[in-house]
Design a protein that fits this description.
Blueprint: H1 5-36, H2 41-68, H3 74-94, H4 100-128, H5 136-160, H6 165-182, H7 185-194, H8 197-201, H9 209-215, H10 217-238, H11 240-246, H12 251-270, H13 272-278, H14 281-301, H15 305-312, H16 319-333, H17 339-367, H18 370-391
Helix pairs in contact: 1-4, 1-5, 1-6, 2-4, 2-17, 3-4, 3-6, 4-17, 5-12, 10-17, 10-18, 12-15, 12-16, 14-15, 14-16, 14-18, 16-17, 17-18
Length: about 400
């Protein structure tokens, strides 16, 4: 059976779009919704931290299972995560305010989303094993556009209608993600039937985690830097509403700022393939991590909504480059037998940064000021940049 490159690229782009819409609902509006239900910033921080801890622990385990199965359970994991997420949020919608069940469900929802991210990334490599080329950067750029549109629309709905728009939207988009993942069934069956060369080439067993760490010492340092670098990124994402309110904005302003930030990513992601023809992946990564800290510093210095918009322009030169560059970097420096684990560990370290950002961010916001909270974040971000500059290995392309 000849697989259609065009159809598979469209289907993969739809997976990225639906995943990033659910991510926008979950990570950008959880604080707004839980505050609406009566929870404090400290409690919300605990929810984010616990959810990220669960995801952090589960990611390497799930990645190891997928690598051992030669990725055959990858799509099943995506479908299962999407279905369970929709059911959990349905429970959140009907549970009474102040319920412990809401806290537990939200922690599991955050864990599920952190698990889905590396699975959706690895799906592109799985599809390529069927003999089809996947344009990851374009699909990820479309994901950013859907993320931006969701933030604008949901920001308006929350401010003008009700915060209950948050769980309703999440249920709809999680169900959509699961349905889109079903589109890959014919292609997956054809791949299994043909028993392609990729399976034979990747037949080596994935390394044990201790062996993996020993073989990839600089990569482990890279992971540590990633966790520190994303501390502020996670804190700003989780508690953006507090930083917006501190400079005179509201939920609609938050949605618009997040949308602008995300749209700024799109041109660079779309042009990433051209950038890699002119610059090495390692050089792009070094540039991106420097721009991360400059962006966080500008957010800290922002005293108005227009100044915040100006700071978010740098999203195009930080996050927008880091995402596709880190995916390519892992593919270049990590053995193919550990491909999913490598991608999952990067996401796990981003998650680890979010764990600390969630706990300490909520604690600092309840005990000090948004400005002081951002200052701590900037210091940690700069430390992450310095670690990353020393850890990134020079790549051939």
């Amino acid at each position: 059976m000849n697989l259609s490159n065009k159809k598979l690229n469209i289907d993969y782009a739809l997976v990225q779009m639906s995943y990033w819409v659910t991510s926008a609902v979950l990570f950008c509006f959880t604080t707004v919704f839980l505050q609406f239900r009566g929870y404090s910033n400290y409690e919300i921080g605990i929810v984010f931290a616990v959810g990220n801890i669960i995801g952090f622990i589960a990611q390497p385990f799930i990645a190891g299972l997928i690598d051992k199965s030669r990725k055959r359970i990858l799509l099943r994991c995506i479908r299962l995560c999407a279905a369970l997420s929709a059911l959990l949020m349905l429970g959140v919608y009907f549970l009474p305010s102040g319920s412990v069940g809401i806290i537990g469900a939200y922690a599991l929802l955050i864990a599920g989303s952190t698990l889905l991210n590396p699975l959706c990334i690895s799906l592109s490599f799985y599809i390529e094993s069927w003999g089809c080329g996947v344009n990851f950067s374009r699909a990820r750029a479309l994901g950013s556009l859907s993320y931006a549109l969701c933030n604008v629309v949901l920001g308006m709905l929350v401010q003008r209608v009700s915060a209950n728009a948050v769980p309703v939207s999440f249920i709809i988009f999680s169900a959509l993600l699961g349905l889109i993942a079903l589109l890959f069934i014919p292609g997956e069956r054809a791949h299994r039937a043909s028993a392609g060369a990729f399976e034979q080439a990747s037949g080596a067993k994935p390394s044990a985690l201790s062996e993996f760490a020993g073989e990839n010492k600089r990569f482990m340092l890279f992971l540590l830097g990633t966790a520190a670098l994303f501390f502020t990124h996670g804190m700003i994402g989780n508690f953006m509403i507090e930083f917006i309110r501190n400079i005179g904005g509201g939920s609609e302003d938050m949605g618009n700022v997040l949308a602008f930030m995300t749209v700024a990513e799109v041109p660079v992601m779309l042009l990433f393939g051209r950038l890699t023809r002119r610059f090495k992946c390692s050089s792009l990564l070094r540039f991106a991590v420097i721009m991360f800290s400059i962006k966080e510093l500008m957010i800290y210095l922002a005293s108005s909504i227009p100044a915040l918009y100006a700071a978010e322009v740098l999203q195009a030169f930080s996050f927008a480059i880091f995402v596709p560059a880190s995916v390519r970097y892992v593919d270049e420096v990590i053995a193919r037998r550990d491909a999913v684990r490598g991608q999952a560990l990067v996401t796990a370290m981003i998650t680890l940064g979010s764990i600390f950002a969630s706990y300490f961010g909520g604690l600092l916001l309840d005990t000090s000021t948004p400005k002081y909270t951002l200052l701590i974040g900037v210091i940690v971000s700069v430390a992450g940049t310095l670690i990353m500059l020393g850890a990134i290995q020079t790549t051939e392309s």
